[in-house]
Design goal:
- With about 140 residues, the protein is of the alpha/beta class.
- Helix content is about 40%, strand content about 15%.
- Strands 2-1-3-4 form a four-stranded parallel β-sheet, sandwiched between helices.
- Helix 3 links the parallel strand 3 and strand 4.
- Helix 1 crosses helix 4.
- The protein starts with 6 loop residues before the first strand and ends in a 7-residue tail after the last helix.
Length: about 140
């Protein structure tokens, strides 16, 4: 769709990225308006990177990492959750809805769930409307 929201998905290489690749390999309908970026760990995604993406017009940012207690880098998913409070304040100062950023825990076998998460998120972003910074 021409008016489909643009989403950036940061995917931890050990679980979420594998699930996303599996979804594509299985021929599941992965939305084309999602840019997938493999990261070593969800904890490697800092708030400045997220704020920059939103400031250039990306409609939503998904940060997907390991399940609680299963992080390959020990505490990456906990780090993301800890940073989310700071990020919420930063987004509010930018006048951007904090719901434009989501963190999800995704396991390797969650290919179908990954696609469902994307579709739900895209639906929510459509309801919010375009990012106010979108050119």
């Amino acid at each position: 769709e021409e008016d489909a929201p643009l989403m950036l998905a940061f995917l931890g290489e050990n679980d979420a990225h594998v699930a996303a690749r599996s979804a594509a390999d299985k021929g599941l309908a992965v939305p084309p308006n999602v840019i997938h970026i493999q990261v070593p760990c969800a904890g490697a995604v800092n708030n400045a990177l997220v704020a920059d993406a939103l400031s250039i017009g990306v409609d939503g940012v998904l940060i997907a990492g390991c399940r609680e207690g299963q992080c390959h880098y020990i505490s990456g998913n906990e780090l993301v959750r800890k940073r989310s409070g700071d990020l919420k304040d930063k987004l509010e100062s930018m006048m951007i809805e904090s719901e434009r950023v989501r963190f999800e825990s995704i396991e390797i076998q969650d290919a179908r769930r990954y696609v469902a998460i994307l579709n739900d998120y895209i639906r929510d972003l459509k309801e919010m409307g375009p990012n106010p910074f979108k050119i």
